[in-house]
Each structure stands twice: as structure tokens, then as C-alpha cells.
Design goal:
By secondary structure, the protein is an all-alpha fold. It contains two helices and no strands. The model has no long low-confidence stretch (mean pLDDT 77).
């Protein structure tokens, strides 16, 4: 079963309640029960972004630019 959490805090709360496990960004490592799995360091996973073409948010434009710079696309 898959649950959706609106943010990392919600996801960590579900894990703390015993509802399962979660894979979170390293930024969540401040949580006392965070377990880093070094085996995943070499794991390459595709990351897809989707957005509405009519969204003119400056934050979205910045994110798209950052992703483009990072990935060279």
C-alpha cells in the first residue's frame, strides 16, 4: 500500500506511527531515526518533473532552470 504525505514531516509522522517505511532526501537526516543506506549511494533513479504549461510561477521557472543546469539539459 502506498500513502501520500504532503511533506517530509507528514511522511516521517506516518513512519513513526508504524505505517511503513519511506525514502526521503538526505535533508531529512536530522530526524533521530534516520537510517542512511550506503548501498543506495550508487543507485541511479530517474527523476521526472511535470508541470502545467500555463503555470507562470517564478519559483517554477527557477526550479526548471536549476534542474536544467544540474542535468545539462
Amino acid at each position: 500500500m502506498v500513502q501520500y504525505g504532503a511533506d517530509n514531516i507528514a511522511i516521517l509522522s506516518m513512519v513513526a506511527a508504524g505505517l511503513g517505511i519511506a525514502i526521503l532526501p538526505a535533508a531529512s537526516s536530522c530526524h533521530p531515526r534516520f537510517l542512511r543506506l550506503p548501498e543506495l549511494d550508487g543507485c541511479e533513479m530517474p527523476l521526472w518533473f511535470a508541470w502545467r504549461p500555463d503555470n507562470d510561477s517564478p519559483a517554477l521557472r527557477n526550479l526548471i532552470g536549476l534542474v536544467g543546469e544540474t542535468t545539462g539539459t
